[in-house]
Design brief:
Layout (H helix, E strand, L loop, with lengths): L4 E5 L5 E6 H9 L3 E4 L5 E2 L1 H6 L8 E4 L2 E4 L3 E4 L14 H7 L16 E5 L14 E5 H7 L4 H4 L29 H4 L15
């Protein structure tokens, strides 16, 4: 339970991070954040401790009882949006390419996708946003260690580094809770599937 995700809001109630419960409790205890309940009321650590943890709420045991796990916290003094680079990763390549093979145009589940270097590494191709694409197993085998032109294949679109916003990944986060909903509604629909790094 201590590793479960907690949504972090800046002072303007905009989502900026996802942290684990352990870190959320640390921020609450040190007075650096407030817990936000279902009715948007704010609680410091002692106030949150006194909030009853019902059977339908997750709890963490303490020496003298239990404390409800917060799903959303509000930072006390942070009002800026962090500047983030989109992390180059297998998951983000899949998201950028919409889980679609960039050669045949068919959509696949993650287990049926590979990453392909457009210009093969054997020919000096780099592992970068501009040279790596999603490819299905069949197309990847067909292309082999050749360029698309050499293999008689065509890319659906030229790969490029995505320009997702700092909040882009929150709606696609795989462990969202109903309490997150009102704060994630500010996320633009086109960016809903971006990966959010667990901070």
């Amino acid at each position: 339970m201590l590793d479960a995700p907690v949504l972090v809001l800046n002072r303007s109630y905009l989502p900026i991070h996802v942290i684990d419960v352990r870190r959320a409790f640390s921020l609450l205890y040190r007075g650096m954040a407030r817990a936000v309940d279902d009715g948007y009321a704010l609680f410091d650590f002692e106030g949150w401790r006194s909030v009853a943890a019902h059977a339908h709420h997750d709890r963490v045991g303490l020496v003298d009882g239990a404390i409800r796990v917060p799903r959303v916290i509000l930072l006390a003094a942070f009002d800026r949006m962090p500047r983030r680079q989109v992390r180059f990763s297998r998951s983000n390549i899949y998201v950028r390419d919409h889980h679609t093979c960039q050669y045949c145009g068919r959509g696949f589940g993650r287990v049926d996708l590979n990453l392909d270097h457009v210009i093969p590494r054997s020919q000096g191709g780099r592992t970068s946003w501009e040279n790596v694409v999603c490819s299905c197993v069949r197309c990847n085998r067909r292309k082999g260690g050749r360029t698309p032109e050499e293999a008689g294949m065509r890319l659906i679109r030229r790969p490029a580094k995505p320009r997702w916003t700092p909040m882009a990944g929150f709606a696609g986060w795989r462990h969202t809770y109903p309490e997150w909903g009102p704060f994630l509604s500010v996320v633009d629909a086109p960016d809903r599937n971006a990966e959010l790094a667990f901070l």
